[in-house]
Design brief:
About 45% of the residues lie in helices and about 15% in strands. It is of the alpha/beta class and about 240 residues long. A 7-stranded parallel beta sheet has the order 3-2-1-4-5-6-7, sandwiched between helices. The protein starts with 6 loop residues before the first strand and ends with a strand.
Length: about 240
């Protein structure tokens, strides 16, 4: 698999799935742009990529709950290069708990970052995606955003609402951009274990996967599958489940 020459913007790239995806995509030749709230976390990911590939990824601080921060980040991304080949909407805060237990500010910030943040980043980077010869927009939703899916009560109703908002946005955006050569995909993983992409276990089947637990390794592989598929095919919805 080669992503050589493709510029990939990843939100929430400082930790977890976003970090693993950024490092793996860079290993496959991509020029990655790291968006996230923590400059320190992004710098650590950039350092890891630099050591492994010799390339210098872009680091762009961005708070998805703040429209002005998103606007500044998108301007910075496009000022560095007018072309964006792939946008991965991965950043979203996790919010467990019963509705009565949750602080109002946590609910507002979760919905703002997950729904409005995803919409505004996509809107802000659309000019760059239109400049690409083969553009993809991938949103990491969650089975919490799939109607009727039982997540065992591990996530809050507010988190479910936010993820359903992402799901609806991706579905409608797919129709809006269908004739513009921009593929739109939504990926719905259930809860998964985090494996460190820098751990030797990553290159083999992680122990948790052997036990039937999905890991971020499989989610990364799914994203790469979607964005490297032949352009005559598209995968608007991909639902993952444990075996």
């Amino acid at each position: 698999m080669s992503l050589s020459g493709r510029r990939i913007v990843i939100t929430g790239a400082g930790r977890g799935l976003g970090r693993a995806l950024a490092i793996t995509a860079a290993d496959h030749g991509a020029d990655v742009v790291l968006l996230g709230r923590s400059p320190e976390a992004l710098a650590a990911v950039a350092d890891a990529i630099r050591l492994r590939t010799g390339r210098d990824p872009s680091v762009v601080p961005c708070d998805l709950a703040q429209p002005d921060s998103i606007k500044d980040a998108c301007r910075s991304v496009l000022a560095a290069s007018p072309v964006v080949d792939v946008l991965v909407n991965n950043g979203a805060p996790w919010l467990p708990g019963g509705i009565e237990e949750l602080a109002e500010t946590d609910i507002v910030n979760t919905v703002a970052a997950t729904v409005a943040g995803t919409i505004l980043v996509t809107k802000g980077l659309l000019p760059g995606l239109r400049q690409s010869r083969a553009a993809d927009i991938v949103t990491i939703v969650s089975t919490a955003g799939w109607a009727g899916w039982d997540n065992g009560g591990r996530t809050s109703a507010a988190f479910h609402a936010a993820k359903h908002g992402q799901s609806g946005f991706s579905d409608q955006l797919r129709h809006e951009l269908k004739d513009q050569g921009i593929r739109v995909a939504a990926i719905y993983p259930p809860d998964f274990d985090d494996v460190d992409v820098l751990d030797p276990e990553w290159t083999h089947a992680p122990a948790s996967a052997a036990k039937g637990n999905l890991t971020n390794r499989e989610v990364v592989a799914t994203v790469l599958f979607a964005i490297t598929a032949p352009r005559v095919s598209a995968y608007p919805v991909i639902i993952l489940d444990n075996t």
